[in-house]
Amino acid sequence: VHFPDVERVEWLNKVLVQAWPYFGTIMEKTFKEVVEPKIRAKNVHLKTCTFTKIHFGEKCPRINGIKAYTKEIDRRQVILDLQICYVGDCEIHMDISKFNLGVKGIQLYGTLRVILEPLLTDPPFIGAVTLFFMQKPHLEINWAGMSNLLDIPGINIMSDSLIQDLIAARLVLPNRVTVPLKKNMNIAHLRFPIPHGVIRVHLLEAENLVQKDSFLGAIRGKSDPYALLRVGTVQYRSKTVSRDLNPIWNETFEFVVHELPGQDLEVDLYDEDPDKDDFMGSLLISLVDVMNDRTVDEWFPLSKTTSGHLHLKLEWLSLVNDQENLHEDKKGLSTAILIVYLDSAFNLPKNHFEYSNGECGAKKIKNNKYLKKMEREPSSFVLLTVGNKTQKSKTCNFSKDPMWGQAFTFFVHSAHSQSLHVEIKDKDRDSALGTSVVCLSHLLKDPNMTLDQRFQLDHSSSDSFIKMKLVLRALNVEEPDPQRVKAGVSALKQGPVRVVEKGGNQQKFGSPPNPEVSKAPHVSKDSAALESLLKKDSRDNLDTNDSSAAPVPSETVAGINEAELEQNPEHRPSSALHTRAAAAPTLPVVQELRLAPSVASLGSLPSSCFELSSSNLDLHNGSEMPLGEIQLTVRYASVRQSLVVLVNGCRNLVPSSNRGVDPYVRIYLLPDRRWASRKKTSVKKKTLNPQYDEKFEFFESLEDVKKRTLDVAVKNSRPFISQERKELGKVRIDLSQEDLIKGFAQW
């Protein structure tokens, strides 16, 4: 797993700090001269609206990092992801007929994508700039004046979420803001590009979920799990499986993917309760990886929880201009996607009486107030329906020629028989201002499966039209390339050098680079089991502070011989390591510990290798030997204000007994050694090369994290009364020395 190459741009933040007062002056002028007249024109009651104070404060937005994409994309564009953080002290107050309303502080966190395209050969060299948030940004507002009421608990969540929805309607995918920089630039295809594809998610089952239901705080009951699946702003909820910690759903969901790289599949599991649903774990999957692998069918470990795995089958469907793929699916799954670019309408009637029943005009209505309302231009919105799904456009106020400029997507099951129903309505009245029905079979007559035209409106004026562009694309499941090395979700199970163990357990591990033994510090403990094996007087150095030494119950398994290293590995050609699997003869444990660098730990330089080392292991040759390696990925997520530690896996662990080991990893963020704050992976049975791929988060500020040390230990889950050594190795990472915003992934 590679975290993006996020670059810190302190120079840009310094420019923002210098320019902020001037930006504030421009915005104050804009509020007085542009925004205030627009608010007054909206409604009779807003005619007295006046901004009494506009101050944008001293604190300006910060850009915590920028990720630039140049390789994975079209050569005529540049994509930038900006991690924006704004904790502002702005104050804006306005009076509306004796009422004072205002804002005195805003907090905003989010990732803003900026697309510069097309790149040109003449000034200004960039045709247009497109802006949008990848996900809904996190927003908090401190209200002032009479709007203080909105700060009341309960109401404040509602008011903030309403504003988040307003932002989402304009600035969160699939919505975009496109600003042309060159004159006469056609930006329609930039504002509404055809989506990258569709992800079909088969939510199959889960296992070993955490128990959340309790009775009188003591007796644990079984949970009632359900899943929330999310891509961008689209969210689906699965059915709830009652009283089951190993639920089976067998449900299918489909999502349109508008932007790659950038969009992820998020899955959250909850336990349904009458009061508040309990969180049971989550999962984040990069859709770029799924697109590359085409089909992924795997068990995924859940993060932010102590146990649980989720079984998903993911299929990437590309959009093709091929009518042969449009046959109806027998399972009821989608076979195509319809993209509707809703542009504008012309000559809408002021009201439905203009065209209903001829003479039955407004004569019958005697109320003058209502007559005035009837005479003004309509405030219209559009309802678009395909099958049982209806989507609603924004409302254009007081215009008979409204301009919507929005895009909508619909899943299509049968292009030959389904239709698009369009209805234009006035927000002040229930009546329709016009309707239109377009059969999707008309699109099949065009070789590009596209219609871009004005459509005559029915039940409307004779010269009323709506302008739309309709694009139909078939969904195509491509077969994965068997020759391709998995680069995505399954990438961590790469480069298989298989070690066949006695007892049938097979392990994969990645081929390591060239070896060198690292002089790692003494961090781990020794145990009575090794004492007896080594026939030496070793001190028992168990750390009494280590509360993780609490027993971890596990099933005892009769002695399965672990794969041991081949004798004299240094005499073997290194290329053989990468090409063939070796069935290794068994050596005594002592001899294995005494061998020079182990086969797969050969080759990591001390600077890039976290080697698990053992203290006080008094070996016959007097030198310290590594006890294996652990692969960790660490970075600081600015938006979530958390340190993210991904435990990928271990390799070449040294067994503590001939019974085999059941390794797990525990993590502390020192100096905090409280049992409640420790993190622990699942236990992997009978393996020296466990693969975890489990993520943990420590919610601390970046400044605080920089002063801390990451304490990672690999332990053996052994029976309570066992004499085996519990700790297999340990490493400490000083976080003050690392660039955590950029992150690092190392063995």
Automatic annotation (TrEMBL):
It comes from the Eukaryota. InterPro entries: C2_dom, C2_domain_sf, C2C_KIAA1228, Ext_Synaptotagmin_C2A, Ext_Synaptotagmin_C2B, Extended_Synaptotagmin, SMP_LBD, Synaptotagmin_SMP. One of its GO terms (cellular component) is plasma membrane. GO terms for biological process: endoplasmic reticulum-plasma membrane tethering; lipid transport. Residues 533-542 have a biased composition (Basic and acidic residues). GO terms for molecular function: calcium ion binding; calcium-dependent phospholipid binding; phosphatidylcholine binding; phosphatidylethanolamine binding; phosphatidylinositol binding. It is a peripheral membrane protein; Multi-pass membrane protein. Its main location: membrane. It is found in: Cell membrane; Endoplasmic reticulum membrane. Residues 5-182 form the SMP-LTD domain. CDD domains: C2A_C2C_Synaptotagmin_like, C2B_Synaptotagmin-like, C2C_KIAA1228, SMP_ESyt3. SMART domains: C2 (SM00239). Keywords: Calcium, Cell membrane, Endoplasmic reticulum, Lipid transport, Lipid-binding, Membrane, Metal-binding, Repeat, Transmembrane, Transmembrane helix, Transport. Pfam families: C2 (PF00168), SMP_LBD (PF17047). Residues 173-300, 318-459, 626-747 form the C2 domain. Residues 496-556 are annotated as: Disordered. The keyword Repeat applies. PANTHER family: EXTENDED SYNAPTOTAGMIN-3, EXTENDED SYNAPTOTAGMIN-LIKE PROTEIN 2, ISOFORM C. Belongs to the extended synaptotagmin family. This is Extended synaptotagmin-3.
